[in-house]
TrEMBL record:
It comes from the Bacteria. This is Adenylyl-sulfate kinase. Residues 173-385 form the Sulphate adenylyltransferase catalytic domain. The keyword DNA damage does not apply. NCBIfam families: apsK, PRK03846.1, PRK05537.1, sopT. Keywords: ATP-binding, Kinase, Nucleotide-binding, Nucleotidyltransferase, Phosphoprotein, Transferase. The gene is cysC.
């Protein structure tokens, strides 16, 4: 096992001439636009990363994989790799049909010759493959299975036409055969893989270095850049961090290569899967830790898998995997000796220093010190670039309330105050202004209001992502739509919902635009509060009253709230 088989692994691509011809034929076939996960899966299917799979799983293979981690050939395979599609699409595809698989730009990457079409029992899949007997949506893969993946699976062999194009870090991406060729060329015979989805700090550098030394092997840092756990540090930042750590290893012993895998966070099964994928890439050893590819806590606050489950399952199937497991030794910093040591070798009474992931995120968010014993200054610089302190991150303030409640007035006052403070660009997306420039074709039906609010949410999420402040001031009468906007924005920064709670009576009394009168006379239809609903926010971050209060005071309340959330400094 410790001698890699470095002859080329079978790929599913046809040669260039056939590809050209097939592409023309495929133009006539029904086509499926691949999701991000399917793109990742297809790439590894085609380049041999998922060998011995020859396509998306058939129903018999799927059943074997879900129940026993075996393909119908008997080969070990722990993870369903399936083409999930919508019901409508599935209904139009009879087994025996060839379909063109396209990337998001419409480029045809492969042809799938559909042999099987079936509706999976997702609950069963969730329990067997991911949830350790449970169907708990707190598991990202179970959530994906139920809420993102299509309801019907198509299976069959793949004919590869071309790989997906990547514009980022091209020189660092290697197919299994490219890596095998590299190892051959370098004369590397024993190579240990380090799988990761996190930035590397000193403890990881120490442990990988030791693992490689103990296995008398070269080291391949093989991070996943396809899809990892929602909320992880983005791969652009991570790759810059890995590059910074590379020269901390003795030269010419260590290599960095990026793996475009869509992780499922399936713990033990995922560890076995990672091992097979590494074998296909020509590796002989892999570091497997406690809680390898763990999904975090379940909805009861407990771990999905036992701490050693991944190592146990890996060990059990090691011969079939074809890669030797190297134990992941937890490394800790011992203050007295100012060095890292394996935790289980440190004597009692020694002072151990550690910074947890949560603590690290807090320090980054709040711009606090990250000590040199913990990480490399170059890594910290990269992380700080993408996680600026809270008072330099983007955020959105979303005012909601009846027409004439004072949303725009308060938002305008707030905008001026924020601009006076400076530091971040401020954009006001006022209801009326948006309707003039972004949504001029829309009316006030529920459907149109929802489209309008989702557009505002999208623009605000882009502003937030890029470090700006978005102030939104639409009526936004529906709670579900406001929630959807919140979700869209919270991936990138804070979202502050402010309910401008002026009563209908007061808005009507003010009737600043004369619209309430027209609405009462029936001359304006579907008018919020009169002939159309307004769902009062149940848990806004802030509720402001405007009756008998001046605008400046209301804006001040928002500022104080922003300060208490660490989003601005009031100096
Ligand atoms: S929504 O529900 O969030 O899409 O509405 P919004 O984009 O904020 O637009 C509200 C402004 O449009 C004017 N207007 C109406 N409002 C409510 N219902 C009906 N039928 C309607 N027709 C026109 C009104 O001036 C609102 O402005 P504000 O600033 O809220 O008073």
């Amino acid at each position: 096992m410790s001698q890699p088989n470095l002859v080329p692994i079978p790929e599913l691509y046809v040669n260039a001439d056939s590809a050209q011809k097939l592409k023309v034929d495929a133009g006539e076939m029904p086509s499926w636009d691949l999701t991000q996960r399917q793109m990742c899966d297809l790439e590894l299917l085609m380049n041999g990363g998922f060998y011995p799979l020859k396509g998306f799983l058939t129903e018999a293979d799927y059943d074997g994989v879900v129940n026993d981690m075996r393909l119908s050939s008997g080969a070990l395979w722990p993870m369903p790799v399936t083409l999930d599609v919508s019901e409508e699409f599935a209904a139009s595809i009879e087994p025996g049909t060839d379909i063109a698989l396209r990337d998001p730009e419409g480029v045809i990457l492969a042809i799938l010759s559909v042999t099987d079409r079936w509706t999976p029992n997702k609950k069963h899949e969730a329990e067997k493959v991911f949830g350790n007997g449970t169907d708990d949506l707190a598991h990202p893969a179970i959530n994906y299975l139920h809420n993102v993946a299509g309801p019907v699976y198509l299976g069959g062999p793949i004919t590869g036409i071309q790989p997906p194009t990547h514009y980022d870090f091209r020189a660092r991406r290697d197919t299994p055969n490219e890596l095998r060729a590299f190892f051959r060329k370098m004369g590397w015979r024993r190579i240990v893989a380090f799988q990761t989805r996190n930035p590397l700090h000193r403890a990881h550098q120490e442990l990988t270095f030791r693992a490689a030394r103990e296995a008398q092997a070269n080291l391949l840092i093989h991070p996943v850049v396809g899809m990892t756990k929602p909320g992880d540090v983005d791969h652009f930042t991570r790759v810059r961090c890995y590059e910074a750590v590379l020269d901390k290893y003795p030269s010419a012993t260590t290599h960095l290569s990026l793996l475009n895998l869509a992780m499922r966070m399936a713990g033990p099964r995922e560890a076995v899967w990672h091992g097979i994928i590494r074998r296909n890439h020509g590796l002989t050893h892999m570091i497997v830790g406690r809680d390898h590819a763990g999904p975090g806590k379940n909805s009861q606050g407990q771990d999905f898998y036992g701490p050693y489950d991944a190592q146990e399952l890996f060990r059990k199937h090691q011969a079939d995997i074809g890669v030797e497991m190297v134990d992941f030794k937890q490394m800790v910093y011992v203050q007295e000796r100012a060095q890292y040591e394996p935790r289980d070798e440190v004597e009692e009474g020694a002072t151990i220093l550690d910074i947890s992931g949560t603590e690290l995120r807090r320090r980054l968010r709040e711009g606090l010190e990250i000590p040199e014993w913990f990480s490399f200054p170059e890594v910290v610089t990269q992380l700080r670039r993408t996680s600026p302190a809270r008072d330099r991150q983007g955020f959105t303030v979303f005012f909601t309330g009846l027409s004439g409640s004072g949303k725009s007035t308060i938002a305008n006052a707030l905008m001026v105050k924020l601009m006076e403070m400076g530091g971040r660009p401020v954009t006001l997306l006022d209801g009326d202004v948006v309707r003039k420039h972004l949504s001029s074709e829309l009316g006030f039906s529920k459907e149109h209001r929802d489209i309008n609010i989702m557009r505002i949410g999208y623009v605000a999420s882009e502003i937030t992502k890029n470090g700006g402040i978005a102030l939104c001031a639409p009526i936004a009468p529906y709670a579900a739509t406001r929630r959807a906007v919140r979700q869209m924005i919270e991936q990138y920064g804070a979202f502050l919902e402010v309910h401008v709670a002026t009563s209908l009576e007061e808005c009507e009394r003010r009737d600043r635009k004369g619209l309430y009168k027209l609405a009462r006379e029936g001359k304006i239809k579907e008018f919020t509060g009169i002939s159309d609903p307004y769902e009062i926010p149940e848990n806004p971050e802030l509720r402001v009253q405007t009756e008998g209060v001046d605008v400046d005071y209301a804006a001040q309340q928002v500022l104080l709230k922003l300060e208490s959330m660490g989003l601005i400094g009031l100096g």
